[in-house]
């Protein structure tokens, strides 16, 4: 029987190809732990795996199934550095701190690949990424970025592409240039979720699915996480719900906003297809970004962000096919076999949000579309903090993340207006 996530629309190609997806029990009764984790995506599972390997008694609960949120349904692109560009970080924080944040993100990339290899998790990694633009006026900024990465940030893997090379590598003439990144790549995210859960469980973490938190309190040096059929009492807590925790804790909800992200998978295009012949992933410079890549069996996996939630997979297909046709006119009638969505947690400045939101309770999220490597590594950094070294996690904690304006009542309408404005600018 096909499993359909109750919190994310559509049936994904990832679910169709992940192989065995083990189920974990629900929590029944009251338990104690050193650390309780709320949220079974990349951040929570990574933290559980690293904590358990260090001998920490850790309990993790997930309201639905592991990977039902963005961790198991995203575009699979690793990215490079933080979501905000290194030059932007330097302008805000100075070179030394910007370089430290860039290096941390690059370590996150290496760690993800090493973790998968060490633990025999087949994540279908394929190298290469193309960041492209349809606006000639953006090309000088692209070139300056590539030069700065090599000269100032020690990252020699970027090279500028002219219109001809871009057309050849993307398989489309819709873009006027871009930057090729040979130091990154893309993966099958749900395979990483399933594999990380396996590693965490084998190390001794107690993992529970279909166990929704009904509230978190911190009192007298102890954390209590209530559930519908029990509770967990612990010394420390990690909230790792990202875009799906709006009703759980108000500080995170004020700083992290969910927006829908939707993907379609086509039929295999065939060996003679001109689409992305080098196997790289691609994303464009639109504010409402389009991101796409080919699967190992030759399908085009094409994603774009919506301003509002789309609940019907048929609507997702219509929207995605329209975007595909703009870039690849020959595919205007291509069959889309899978269409799905999920919700990405974003922050105002597109930088991750990590804060101690109540005594001994840390919340992490808001990776803003750059979470495949950053969220996994943040879980590792949280485990380091529990062990007594919080210095590296503090690099992220100390970033300036203002709350969304408008409060709980008006922030969603204000974001809707803002995203529509930026979407209009994308067309100019």
List key phrases describing it.
single chain; 428 residues; alpha/beta; FAD/NAD(P)-binding domain; D-Amino Acid Oxidase, Chain A, domain 2; 2 domains; eight-stranded mixed sheet; 17 strands; 35% helix; globular; FAD/NAD-bd_sf; oxidoreductase
Question: Can you characterise this structure?
Answer:
The protein is an alpha/beta fold. The chain folds into 2 domains: 201 residues, 3-Layer(bba) Sandwich (FAD/NAD(P)-binding domain), CATH 3.50.50; 145 residues, 2-Layer Sandwich (D-Amino Acid Oxidase, Chain A, domain 2), CATH 3.30.9. Helix content is 35%, strand content 26%. It is built from 12 helices and 17 strands. Strands 1-15-11-14-13-12-4-6-5 form a 9-stranded mixed β-sheet. Strands 2, 3, 7, 8, 9, 10, 16 and 17 form an 8-stranded mixed β-sheet that branches. β8 and β9 form a beta hairpin. α2 packs parallel to α7 and α3 crosses α4. The longest helix has 24 residues. The chain is globular and about 65 Å long. About 2% of the residues have low confidence.
> How many separate domains make up the residues?
2
Low-confidence segments: 307-313
Count helical runs: 12
Label the CATH architecture of the largest domain. Answer: 3-Layer(bba) Sandwich
State the distance separating the first and last CA atoms: 46 Å
- Helix/strand-derived category reads alpha/beta
Report the order of strands and helices.
Answer: EHEHEHHEHEHEHEEEEHEEEEHEEEHHH
> How many individual β-strands?
17
**Tell me, what is the CATH class of the largest domain?**
Alpha Beta
Estimate the strand proportion: 25-35%
How would you sum up the global shape?
A: globular
Give me the oligomer status: single chain
CATH topology of the largest domain: FAD/NAD(P)-binding domain
- State the helicity in percent bands: 25-40%
Nearest-integer average pLDDT: 92
How many strands, which pairing sense, and closed or not: the largest β-sheet? 9 strands, mixed
What integer value in Å does the Rg equal?
A: 21 Å
In the sheet with the most strands, the strands line up as 1-15-11-14-13-12-4-6-5
Question: Considering the protein shown, what is the CATH homologous superfamily of the largest domain?
Answer: FAD/NAD(P)-binding domain
Organism: Aquibium oceanicum
Domain FAD dependent oxidoreductase: 34-384
Protein name: Oxidoreductase
Keywords: Oxidoreductase
